[in-house]
Amino acid sequence: MNIRKELENALGAAQHIQLNDLELDPLKIRAILINEAVPCDPSQDFYGRQDAAYLSTTIPLFQKAGFKVQSIQDILQLGIYITNAVKTPKTEYAIARSTIEDSLPYLEKELALFPNKKVIMLMGDVAKKAFNMITKKESKKNAVPAVSTYKLRSSEIYYNGIRIMPSYIMTGGNILIEKSKVEMASEDLAIMGRIIAQ
After folding, report:
1. Best exposed site among 60, 150, 171, 174 by fewest CB in 10 Å?
2. Domain Uracil-DNA glycosylase-like, which positions (predicted)?
3. 45 and 54 in contact (C-beta within 8 Å)?
4. Taking Cα atoms as reference points, which of 164, 172, 166, 195 lies closest to residue 58?
């Protein structure tokens, strides 16, 4: 299945929306990581070039968590799919609610493509906000409490039988500065790995 084709067939193609042009077997995916937003240059995204900017922080984070990975293909082989909550590049430091809403139908449909998911990791506040917007439509309440990620990390959150794990953003310059968040995100990834291995 091609992710982009599936989403465009369901929702139509939008010129400004960037979707993962990727062939995979959706039945093999056990975990989904939702990052913040697509980069300005699609070749720098997770499924772009081998030396893409997004992979330059993601692969070391997985390695720190104990995964023996060298590429995005290695991550996919483990049953882990990575996507972005916002399908348009950031234009300002903060992402407006309306920008998240524009991408929401694509993210919602994308999550529904994977029937065997056990874990959804929300990598940063934008992912947390987007996921809550989806769940609020369905259940009239947030799946993830509106408190800091630091406080949520020790609690087990489930939505429709799927473990929801709020964590920290894994791309961009911030990750290089905030070493404590790198530590916590790698610990969260290790927990996710144990869950999907069961």
Report:
1. 150
2. 62-139
3. yes
4. 172
From the list 60, 19, 58, the residue with the least C-alpha distance to 42 is: 19
The HSE-up count of residue 22 (CA atoms within 13 Å, CB side) is 22
pTM: 0.95
Please tell us whether the domain made up of 3-197 is placed in CATH 3.40.470.10. yes
Q: Residue 191's Cα: distance from chain center in Å?
A: 16
159, exposed or middle or buried, with CB in 10 Å at 0-12, 13-18, 19+?
Answer: middle
Residue 80: closest CA among 100, 59, 105: 59
- H or E element in which residue 91 lies: none
Distance CA 89, CA 38 (A): 5
Please give the DSSP secondary-structure letter assigned to residue 36: E
Phi then psi dihedrals of residue 119, to 5 deg: -135, 140
| Cα 133 versus chain centre, distance | 15
CA distance 157 to 155: 6
In degrees, to the nearest 5, what angle opens at C-alpha 137 toward C-alphas 155 and 196? 40
Residue for token pair 């929300």: 122
